[in-house]
Amino acid sequence: MNIGIRRFTRITFNHKVRLDFGDQQYEEQSICNLSLSGICVKGNFTRKKGDRCVVELHQSGEIGLSVEFQAKGVVAWVNLERIAIEFTEMEHESLIFLQTALLYQADDPMLLGTEFGRDVSFQVIDKDD
What we know:
alpha+beta; Thrombin, subunit H; 6-stranded antiparallel β-barrel; 2 helices
């Protein structure tokens, strides 16, 4: 877990993610870290700060449960090895998955849980919106 100067705790999250920029997709990218406000992804990206994308995580569980996480985001920064995406919008079900994943991986779940009461910088929408 890495807090640093960030507002929200970052956790290591060893899963693959898909980034869809509309004109270009990045499949099966490795996640560096994840927080309540965004995601950092390893790779060589030809994007710039401010570019908008959809972040998708699809995973089939060992007991038949599947994960469908999707969030809209904007590039916060990019370099030759990584890209950071700040979440701008996600459905309520994706927020629940994100909070659960963060708690499961946190060194101090009680401390991290206090962050859930803070205002997030993204919009949470219902599936019907």
